[in-house]
Amino acid sequence: MRTTIGAGAGLLVLLVASLTGCALQTSSCRDYVQLDTDEARTDEAALVVDARVSATDRTVDVDGVYRLHAATVTDVRKGTAPSRTLDVFAPSDQCTTGGQAVEYSEGDPLGEPGTYRMYLHEERDGLWRLIVPDAVERLD
User: Fold this and answer.
1) 30 C-beta neighbours (distance < 10 Å), count
2) Which three-class secondary structure state does DSSP give residue 104?
3) 22-36, 47-61, 90-104: which has the minimum mean pLDDT?
4) Tens of pLDDT along 51-93?
């Protein structure tokens, strides 16, 4: 009888521990508004810049782990750029889980180095994100 109680208690502890681990992960699914025109994107953005974009070896966790890109501003079309180089990421078009690397259905829209027009929102001090996953235009 004691063996059965001990085994049952052990199973209960294992079950609670596994459920607690799941509860500690936060997931986020966003339903983005479709912004199909440059005018609509410009209206929604706090900052619109043309910039040379390159990948960095840095990441940031914003409801998921994103690769940061360095954007060297060449032209400001709306707003005021706080510096010549901005830390930028493209939000995922997939559900994300805090602490886990994000995924994109068609790849990171800033994944290739080049010159882009970006429609941005300040996520937090010194960190910028595209207003929606596809709020970027390749210029070169």
Assistant:
1) 14
2) coil
3) 22-36
4) 999 999 999 999 999 999 999 999 999 999 999 999 999 999 9
18-25 mean pLDDT: 45
| Cα–Cα dist 27/99, whole Å | 10
Q: How many helices (H) and strands (E) in the chain?
A: 2, 8
Tokens 């929102």, residue located? 121
CA distances 50 to 3, 110, 133, Å, are: 69, 13, 17
Looking at the chain, which runs of residues are DSSP E strands?
27-28, 47-61, 65-78, 85-89, 96-97, 114-124, 127-130, 136-138
* End-to-end Cα distance, the chain: 75
The Cα 61–Cα 43 span in angstroms is 27
Tokens 């010159």 -> residue:
115
